[in-house]
Amino acid sequence: MRHRGHPRSRSRRRLGPGRWHVSARVERFVEPSLLLLLRERPLHGYELLDLLPELGIEGRVDIGNLYRLLRALEEEGLVSSEWSDELPGPAKRTYELTAEGLRVLDTWAEALKRARGTIATFLDRYEEGR
CB 3.0 to 4.6 Å from 85: which of 10, 39, 91, 117, for a disulfide? Predict the structure, then answer.
C-alpha cells in the first residue's frame, strides 16, 4: 500500500494491470566501474564512456555527469588527471587511479561480494519455491 507523501519506488513501476517493470540495479555502480577501468590503465573520458557498457552499465552515461563524477573522484584523491596531447586530436585530460582509489576499489569489491552473496541467497530461495 502506498501512502501519500511517500516517494515511489525507483526500482519498480506498474505498467498496467498485472504488469510491472522491475529494475534490479546496483546503485552508484558507475563509480566502482570507473575505478576498475582506471586500474587497468589511464584513460580519458570518452574512452571510459565507451568501456562502461562492457561492465554492464545500462544505457549510456551522460558525458557531463561522467566528467562531474571524475572531478569529484579527483577532489577526493581517488583519481588524478593530467592533460595529454599524445593522442590524436586536441589535448585530452587523462585520468589515472591513485593508491587511495585502489583502496576504495578494493572496498567496493568486498561490498559487492557481500551483495552477491545476499542476492544468491535470495535467488536460491526463490528457485526452491517454484
Answer: 91
